[in-house]
Structures are given as structure tokens and as C-alpha cells.
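Memo to structure team: turn this sequence into C-alpha cells by end of day. - J.P.
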Amino acid sequence: MEIEKNTLPDTVRRNPVSGVSVFFPSLPEKKGDIRNQTIICFGDSLTYGTGAGKDMDYPAQLSRMIGKPVINAGVSGDTTARALQRLERDVLSKFPDLVLITLGGNDLKNGVAKDLAFENLRSIVESIQNIGAKVILGGLKFPMRDRGFGRAYQNLADDTGATLIPNIYEGVMGNRKLMSDPIHPNDEGYKIITQRFYDAMLQ
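Reply from structure team:
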């Protein structure tokens, strides 16, 4: 299912000594148990944080946003096949409640057949769901250039019930102010990706 941006009210707290007002993003009460969940970010260089400064990868930014630890299980250069091989060790054995995934970009870049890539990705998603965890997929969409990967993410989400961010790169890829190199975001680019995953978590 496709997500829409969720606008939430903020909590404002004033320090009685300094008089400074600090804004805290509010989680809806029905989703407040996010703070008690084990959250794993599983994926490739987008998860690992290639191109980001220290503690500016999206899992680190997300951790600060929600005020709890988030596990970064990203490996730069990972394909869906390699990620599937390490799934038990890096994800399933930790019994997560929520897993955020960025995978498929290296398969696309390396010419891996779409059907094979999404067979692997389906195995990953369904294995995670089988232990009771929710999955959020960060999809990719490059019209006329993605060999059908963009549509395949949507089909996978429709089939499995995983939450889909259709194009995690939307508005980031190609914007020099948001990219550290032609493929990887910079700190500001990862900030946008973080916000997209955060919004998806609140669905």
C-alpha cells in the first residue's frame, strides 16, 4: 500500500530557566508503542549511510527523531541475494517489531534480472512478516530506466501487505544540494529519506 504524508501536531515545552521553547514531534497515542519496539533498518548503502557525515545516516537520524535506539543493519553494495543470506543473523535472530528495507538498487545497477531480484526480496519480506514484524519498503522508481523495478515494488507491496514508499529518492536524486555523489544522498538528502520512513511508521 502506498503511503501519504502524515501531518502531526507538535508538543511545545518551555524551559522555565532559559525560557527557550523546544518542539518535540508528537506520535499519535495509538502508535505510541513505537518507543517500545525493536526497529531494524536493513539494506544496502542507503541504509548503511554512504555519503553521510558522522551519525547522519538515516537510521541514526530516525533514532534521534523517535528518541530510541534503531539498529543499522545496512551493508554497502548489498544485493537482494546477499541480504537474503544474512537475513537470519542480522534481522530474524533479533526478533524485531518493525523492519525498514532499502534493497534492489544494486540489483538494478548490476543488471540482475528483475524476477530474480524480487523473488529474493519477497523471501526477505515474507520471512520477516512470518515472525510477526511489520515491513516498510523503500522503493525505487526511474521511469523508462528501471526495467520494471518500480512496478515490481508496488506488486510486492500489494501481494504481501508491506507498506511501500514508492520512490525513496523522489526529489533527492539529481538534486546536487541533496546528493554527495551521483548515487548517494548527503546529510540533507538522508534527512528527507528519514522523514519518509518516519511518516510511513505512523501509518
